[in-house]
Amino acid sequence: MKSILTKQWISQHWFKIILLGMFILLLQQKNLNLQFNLSNQPSIVAPETATDKIEDKSSWLSKLNPSHLASHLAGGLTEKTSSTIVKELEEKPTDQMGYSDNLSNTYSNMTYQESALKAVPTRTKAQLKKLKKQRAYVDRFVNVAQVEMKKYGIPASIKLAQGLIETNAGESRLSTKNNNHFGMKCFSKKCKKGHCSNFTDDSHKDFFRTYKSAWASYRSHSKMLSGNKRYRHLFKLAPVDYKGWAKGLYKAGYATDKRYAEKLINIIEELNLQQHDEIN
């Protein structure tokens, strides 16, 4: 009777029995593959001398290069002995986080660097020639400008920048003929011979001072600034505050050019003239 019932149950559920059997077979096969992979996986064994090589005994894995650790877990590299791992740790310095020093962990392999963002623009031959003349002018008068700074408190950078602009780097007719480096005009109505000269027309407003030497022109400029009430507030500034001096000179009416302060600052920074304001 039981056999008849069993046969009837099997005939009614034969499809389910087959599915169950297939499911069991799949589980067994998956289990076998998992065991096989685990048995073939290269083992990572803590080096026998790790206690001597690594300060933290409990976290020696953190001292491994992450790329090596990942390769071991993925089975993509050949198995390395504990002595080889220790040797790598000794040869490759580690940072504070325990990672070996390679380019992937630093900023040096980035696609751009800060220095590239500040590339020096290419200059034309004319610009290079002008730059050479400007530097020659600075080399010629830097000592004079510093002497005047010590005596009167006018930044050497401002003195040099004004001289460069007013004389076109020492090539203007006024500087070569009159030794006048700051466009100093003569307003006296009783000038002695050789005191001044006219360069444009007969208007007395266009008479410019004549000096025996360039040094005399620099001294005259210092006396004019220090003795004129319009510029008195500038001497309250620090001698290294070339930007304050440049803006103050324009506001006080030294020049009518609206970009005069900007031009002074630009030429100072381009030629690094501010370095001459520091007196050891």
Summarize the structure.
It contains eleven helices and two strands; from the N terminus they run H-H-H-H-H-H-H-H-E-E-H-H-H. It is an all-alpha fold and about 280 residues long.
Question: What are the defining features of this structure?
Answer:
280 residues; mainly alpha; Lysozyme; 11 helices; 2 strands; rod-shaped
Explain what this protein looks like in three dimensions.
The chain is an all-alpha fold. It folds into two domains: 2-105, no CATH class; 125-277, Orthogonal Bundle (Lysozyme). The chain is 52% helix and 2% strand. It has eleven helices and two strands; from the N terminus they run H-H-H-H-H-H-H-H-E-E-H-H-H. It has helices at 2-40, 50-53, 66-74, 82-91, 114-117, 125-152, 156-167, 173-178, 214-227, 242-251, 260-270; strands at residues 196-198, 207-209. The protein has a two-stranded antiparallel sheet with strand order 1-2. The model is unreliable at 43-82 and 92-118 (pLDDT under 50).
- What's the overall average pLDDT, rounded? 74
Instruction: Examine the secondary-structure arrangement and name the CATH architecture of the largest domain.
Output: Orthogonal Bundle
Gap between N and C termini: 119 Å
CATH topology assignment of the largest domain: Lysozyme
List low-pLDDT spans: 43-82, 92-118
How does the overall form come out from the CA principal axes? Answer: rod-shaped
Radius of gyration: 42 Å
